Amino acid sequence: MAALWITHVSVTNDEEYGKYAKLAGPAIEKHGGTFLARGTRYKWIEGTERPRNVVVRFDSIEAAEACYNSPEYQEALSFAKGASERDMVFVEIAEA
Fold this sequence. Notes:
Elements: E1 3-11, H1 14-30, E2 34-38, E3 52-58, H2 61-69, H3 71-80, E4 84-92
């Protein structure tokens, strides 16, 4: 069943986060992720606002998790860890 990778981000170091973004996109696409939203317009309703929001579609939660744990994505993530505050979740898409 398809799944969404949803990340809410507050960037604290633009230069380092830029290194993350440069590597993360190709790593996600290599592992079958399709970007649905990436830093686009948003309206925050509840909770802690994070101004950068990313939604990626994968074939399954397992595929999203495999991407996250891949060497390519972990290399990218090493730049984001000290350069951002992030909340992330993988959510299975309900069948209609």
